[in-house]
Amino acid sequence: RYKTVVTPRRAAVAIACCWIVSFLVGLTPMFGWNNLNKMRRTQELNASHTEFVIKCQFETVISMEYMVYFNFFVWVLPPLLLMLLIYLEVFNLIRKQLNKKVSSSSNDPQKYYGKELKIAKSLALVLFLFALSWLPLHVLNCITLFCPSCETPHILTYIAIFLTHGNSAMNPIVYAFRIKKFRTAFLQIWNQYFCCKTNKNTSTTTAELGN
After folding, report:
1. Are 66 and 29 in contact (CB under 8 A)?
2. How many domains does the chain have?
3. Contacts of residue 63, Cβ cutoff 8 Å, sequence gap at least 6
4. Between these two residues, 149 and 55, which has the higher pLDDT value?
């Protein structure tokens, strides 16, 4: 059923929707949900006639209401919890199938579900690294919003932001080390475009990845 449900066209539409939503969510502060008006009102209340200067810091420019209520509570936490439940169900189903096949002493299905379990573990590792990389920043944002008197060291904020950016570099590494087909494809791309080496098996591996 996978090949009939997940067609190239549907996959392209799903990817396009993800990018569109990401752009809209990420660019929301540029549409007006930011601290610019708040900083202007603060300057007017102080009766300051000096030139209006914005201090370029993350928590100064970005609205914490946007980061917590909209970004975290809508676009990060619910999908994260949903994916966690889905992976728990996937692991439960695979282990049930493995127990059935072991009891019936059938080796081929056991090998198939063992392979599926390995892939599921790799994808679960990607999910774990995502949570590990993004939750610290969102926790700090919640502290800033709900506890204004609490002061968090700037170095912690910088580390949390660095982790969110570093998460983008983790996924290819995990795929390359955990999934053989991805590792083979990465090596072929590297040899072809960076080392100027051609490989006759490139099309074959690409076709296998598509399957």
Report:
1. yes
2. 2
3. 29, 33, 34, 35
4. 149
- 31 plus 86 within the same structural domain: no
**Which CATH number does the domain housing residue 155 bear?**
1.20.1070.10
User: What's the pLDDT band for 197 if we cut at 50, 70, 90?
Assistant: low
Q: Which amino acid makes up residue 92?
A: N
Angle between helices 180-193 and 154-178 (to 10 degrees): 100
**Which pair of structure tokens corresponds to residue 166?**
């570093």
Say if 43 falls within a structural domain.
yes
Q: Is the dihedral of CA 196, 199, 203, 207 positive or negative?
A: negative
List of residues 6+ apart from 205 with CB closer than 8 A: 181, 184, 185, 188
**CA 36, CA 67: separation in Å to the nearest integer?**
15
- Reported pTM: 0.77
Contact 112, 103 (CB under 8 A): no
For residues 80 and 174, state if they share a domain.
yes
Given CA atoms 135, 138, 144, 147 in this order, what sign does their dihedral have? negative
Q: How many other CB atoms are found less than 10 A from the CB of residue 38? A: 11
- Report whether 25 contacts 33 (CB < 8 A): no
Residue 16: give the domain boundaries. Answer: 1-62
Contact criterion met (CB below 8 Å) for 79 and 25: no
